[in-house]
Amino acid sequence: MANIKVTVDDKAVSQRLQQLLQVVEKPRPLMLQVAETLHQQSMKMFEQQGFPANSWPSLKPSTIRSRSRAGHWPGKILQVTGRLAASVTPASGDDFAQIGSNLVYAAIQHLGGTIKRQGQVRLRTDRQGNLMKRGNLATFARRSHKQAVARAVNYSIVIRPRPFLPVTDNQQLNKPAFEAVMGVLNDAFMKSR
Question: Whose CA is closest to 6, among 163, 174, 137, 185?
């Protein structure tokens, strides 16, 4: 029998979990069910745009304008392509149940933070050295363009946290996820009797 560590603050719940773990010979199916329950809770957070519903910070007006021009607004936050939500996957074993994402940008979307950009861009110029424009926007230069000027690009982007995994700031399950997981465990306990 595998050792499974369960940490719960409630003594009655903790005792019930220990009783369940003593009678379960193969915990892997139970852990898979817990992982799938966590995944369902995460998908609800994407659907409801946070917990409680609609608690994610709204998009900046510039982001809304950009998404509108691209035909992606109105829409849901963090779901232009659906790639982030699709990347959240469950995993389990004899002694763990978890969900997570393998996307590089998933952590900063969940936790928030600042992205610092540095570098340069090449912009096309005419023979007099004036920037060539399309409307109000400068035109980027290809390597083949001989008349170009390099400009430094240094700026920061602040990403506000939009937690999509069902955990609180202190790394505990949020209330709906806790209740759903406890429902799975209670059902398993009742079936094992």
Answer: 185
